[in-house]
Amino acid sequence: MNKAEILIIDDEPQIRKLLQINLESNHYKVVQASTGKEGLVLSANHIPNLILLDIGLPDKSGHEVLKELREWYNNPIIILSVQDNESDIVAALDNGATDYLTKPFRTGELLARIRSAIRRSQNTANTSVISCGAIEIDLVARIVKRNNEIIKLTSTEYNLLALFAKNEGKVLTHQYLLKEIWGYSYQTETQYLRVFVGTLRKKIEENPNNPQHIITESGVGYRFQ
């Protein structure tokens, strides 16, 4: 039986009720907050396994709440919002959101993303080997294998793949990837990223034109699965 606790921070009573019914029917424990301030207090008093956060809150922006949570809260935060413009999505992901769904959302998809996020957060953080289908990444030896055969990667290609693998299932924005791999001064150089993602796909994907591991999130970034 699932004992994970989920905190819903949303000012719409009908949305909270819908989420509560679906989550509890899937054996999650549910706590609710209707304002950002209430959500911050509840999350600090009893740390939930995952937070569902609305952007449009009555007392403060969900983006502000997200930033405050990420000062100390390390578990998954999934944004649920009617805002579907690229700038809001990118801002949320850059500020530490684990995932982003726009309202109205499909319940099955939300539950799948919740399961995935919680599963990843419960995995051992210090694991030295990450397996993703036919791909195996040894983070200590810096060795990558596909179907048990070593793949030769450049240092940059390896660093990019390791970053993807450590954040499996999470959307990583172009800006985040560029900052982490090349540094702050390269955050607008998206062509660097396209080139290296392309070469990485040729080396790890069975069919680079139909990638199964490095998935493009149009206009936002990439998701590794």
Describe the structure in your own words.
By secondary structure, the protein is α/β, with parallel strands linked by helices. The protein folds into two domains: 5-122, Response regulator (Rossmann fold, 3-Layer(aba) Sandwich), CATH 3.40.50; 129-224, Winged helix-like DNA-binding domain superfamily/Winged helix DNA-binding domain (Arc Repressor Mutant, subunit A). The protein is built from eight helices and twelve strands. A five-stranded parallel beta sheet has the order 2-1-3-4-5, with helices on both faces. Strands 6-7-8-9 form a four-stranded antiparallel beta sheet, covered by helices on one side. Helix 4 (86-94) links the parallel strand 4 and strand 5 (99-102). Helix 2 (36-45) packs parallel to helix 3 and helix 6 (155-166) packs across helix 8. The longest helix is centred in the middle third of the chain and has 16 residues, at 107-122. The protein is globular and about 55 Å long.
Question: What's the structural blueprint in terms of helices and strands?
Answer:
Elements: E1 5-9, H1 13-25, E2 29-33, H2 36-45, E3 50-54, H3 62-69, E4 77-81, H4 86-94, E5 99-102, H5 107-122, E6 129-132, E7 135-138, E8 143-146, E9 149-151, H6 155-166, E10 171-173, H7 174-182, H8 190-204, E11 214-217, E12 221-224
Parallel strand pairs: 1-2, 1-3, 3-4, 4-5
Antiparallel strand pairs: 6-7, 7-8, 8-9, 10-12, 11-12
Attribute tags:
8 helices, 4-stranded antiparallel β-sheet, alpha/beta, 12 strands, Rossmann fold, 225 residues
Helix/strand-derived class?
Answer: alpha/beta
Low-pLDDT residue intervals, each spanning 5 or more residues: none
The biggest beta sheet reads: 5 strands, parallel
Count all strands and give the number: 12
Counted up, domains total 2
**Helix and strand string, N-terminal first?**
EHEHEHEHEHEEEEHEHHEE
> Whole-Å distance between the termini?
26 Å
CATH architecture of the largest domain: 3-Layer(aba) Sandwich
Q: Classify the helix fraction into a percent range.
A: 40-55%
Q: What is CATH's topology name of the largest domain?
A: Rossmann fold
Major sheet strand order: 2-1-3-4-5
CATH class of the largest domain: Alpha Beta
**What is the mean pLDDT?**
88
The global form is globular
Number of helices: 8
- Portion of residues in beta strands equals 15-25%
CATH superfamily of the largest domain: Response regulator
What is the radius of gyration?
A: 18 Å
Main location: cytoplasm
Protein name: Two-component system KDP operon response regulator KdpE
Subcellular location: Cytoplasm
DNA-binding region: 127-225
